[in-house]
Hints:
With 285 residues, chain A is α+β, with helices and mostly antiparallel strands. Chain A has helices at residues 6-26, 31-108; strands at residues 118-126, 134-137, 150-153, 156-164, 169-173, 180-185, 191-197, 200-208, 218-221, 233-241, 248-255, 264-268, 282-283. Helix content of chain A is 35%, strand content 28%. With 174 residues, chain B is mostly helical. Chain B has one domain.
Amino acid sequence: MKRVSNRTFLFFLLASISLVLLVLSSSGHLAPVEGQLGRVTKPFLVAFNGLGRQISNVFETVRSLSTLRTLNSQLQTQVDTLTIENLRLQEAEAENQRLRELLRFKQLNPIYDFSGGQIIARVLSQGSTNYLSTLTIDLGSGQGIKAGMPVVTERGLVGRIYKVGPDSATVLLITDPSSGVQALVERNRAVGVVNGRAGSLPVMDYIPQDADISVGDLVLTSGLGGTFPKSLVIGQVVEVNKRDFDMFQQAVVRPTVNFDRLEFVLVITNFQPLPGEPGELESVG
Amino acid sequence: MQSQTRPSLDIYLSLLVLALVVIAQGTLFSRLRIFDVGPNLLLVTTVCWSLVQNMASGLVWGFAGGLGADLITGMPLGTSSLALMAPCLLAGFGRKTVFASNLVLPVLLVGLATPLHGWIVLLSQQAQGRSIAWLSTTAQVILPEMALNALLAVIIFPLLRGLALGIGITPLEK
């Protein structure tokens, strides 16, 4: 007869005990014993459970750090997106405001007979150099733009159409040395010509010596010569040059339009400049 | 005189270690979830102890530790004991190989013991009338646990070997 080893015997003994316990425990016969044993082990379990909770919290914190970092990254991306969106909306609001002002200008100037006339044009580029003060707009002959048409904003006179292409046009600014605008001083109706100057503010020439010109006077288009409509705001007198031996006095005019920040202009399309006016006007279309 | 006190000291120390392992398994390791499963410290310790000491000692640890684990987890008493003792048999066979002192053996044995342990637990639960999804449980619980337990064995085996050497326990049988 084969001898059963001690460890085999031990295994079967413990396995048998385990099976008996399993059957008894499953049937509920060991519930009182389990309850008592549970009571004994409870303090240890509570203590270790507290320790386990703390260790778990440490792991949870570490795990949360990674999640928080990811979340932070996502939120940062979202903030960036919203910032860009916000800037875009602010830009749209500003653009809307500017267009409203242009519209208000149109409504406040019914004397110009703007019916079917003014076109809101987007400034494409500002080509002002030391030698030529121009800007380009995204309207051309296709949109009914013709050379010589006055260009304005709600703040005042900008210039006139200089060159016309199929879909764009160049505007000669009133600050360009080749530009001359028949003007008058609003307060006393003294007339003159506002000429652009390279690198400095335009000057109002040919003002009679006896005219009372003061700093702060508003200068408007006079409508004389038929180049521009009447009463468009040009600028404000910032300096008066009056010498007794000259036939005329001069006034330096600061344009009310800020040419550096132009984005929208209006082209007065129903105004026809008189023929023979500035020879520099040409069509490239 | 010294030879009489040493075995009792070893037993108490072993019981203390076992108790700590059982409580740690029920409290600390039950919270540690990786891939939605946790490593089984008690299983790893029992298998490694069987290799460090001997199969009989491993069986005792498996039996006692299993009872403690069942008490903590609320499973019917004896379930874990049965599931832990079977892997000890594996460990007993592994001791006879040339890799007995190598770290590869405990890792391999723990890897094999994990599904054995898991299936015995599942079988006992099915015997009690519970519906068991064998395939999905094996794929989603047992397989990840195998990897975790194998990794844990890399840490536990040297510790237990150091403990055994420290308290002067030598294998009772080869």
